[in-house]
Specification:
The protein is α/β, with parallel strands linked by helices and 145 residues long. The protein contains 4 helices and 5 strands. The protein has a domain at 21-103 and 129-137. A 5-stranded mixed β-sheet has the order 1-2-3-4-5, sandwiched between helices. It is globular and about 35 Å long. The protein starts with 8 loop residues before the first strand and ends in an 8-residue tail after the last helix. This is STAS/SEC14 domain-containing protein.
C-alpha cells in the first residue's frame, strides 16, 4: 500500500521581489486542491503579497468541472477583496494539462478571468511565468475596493 506524503502542496514567500510560490508535490485530491487555495490566500494576506507563481506540473489530470467553477466563481473573486490589491497569478502546468482543459471546453481565456479584479497568466515554464510577473510589476498595482 502506497502512502501519500503528508503535505501535498508547499507554499513559500520570498521577500525580494515579493512573491508567493506554490508547488504541487503530487497530484491533489479535490479537497486538497481547495485547501491549497485557501492556504495560499491566508499566506497572501499574511504577507500582503499579490504576486503568485503556482506550479501545478505534478498534477497530471484535470479536475471535475465543478472544481474549476468554484475556482472562477468563488475563490478567485474573493482574492482581490481579501488582499485589497489586484492579484497577479501565474499558473504553470504541463502543456497536456492546458490542452485537456481546453478540450473539456474550459477556455483559458475565460471572460471571468479577464476581469480587472485580477490578472492571470498560463505557462508551461517557470522562466516565462516569472518574466510575466516581473512585467506586471512595472505597472502600478491598483488598490481594489
Amino acid at each position: 500500500m502506497a502512502f501519500l506524503p503528508p503535505h501535498p502542496y508547499a507554499v513559500h514567500y520570498q521577500t525580494q521581489p515579493p512573491l508567493l510560490r506554490g508547488l504541487v508535490l503530487r497530484p491533489l485530491l479535490t479537497l486538497e486542491f481547495t485547501e491549497a487555495c485557501e492556504m495560499l490566500l491566508a499566506m497572501a494576506q499574511r504577507y500582503q503579497c499579490s504576486y503568485w507563481l503556482l506550479d501545478g506540473r505534478a498534477n497530471e489530470s484535470t479536475r471535475p468541472t465543478d472544481v474549476y467553477q468554484w475556482l472562477v466563481k468563488e475563490f478567485l473573486p474573493q482574492v482581490p477583496r481579501a488582499l485589497k490589491q489586484i492579484p497577479h497569478v501565474a499558473f504553470v502546468a504541463q502543456a497536456s494539462f492546458w490542452d485537456a482543459l481546453q478540450t473539456r471546453s474550459y477556455p483559458l481565456s475565460n471572460p471571468a478571468l479577464a476581469a480587472p479584479a485580477f490578472h492571470i497568466g498560463w505557462f508551461t515554464e517557470d522562466d516565462d511565468a516569472e518574466a510575466w510577473l516581473n512585467l506586471s510589476r512595472s505597472t502600478p498595482n491598483l488598490v481594489f475596493q
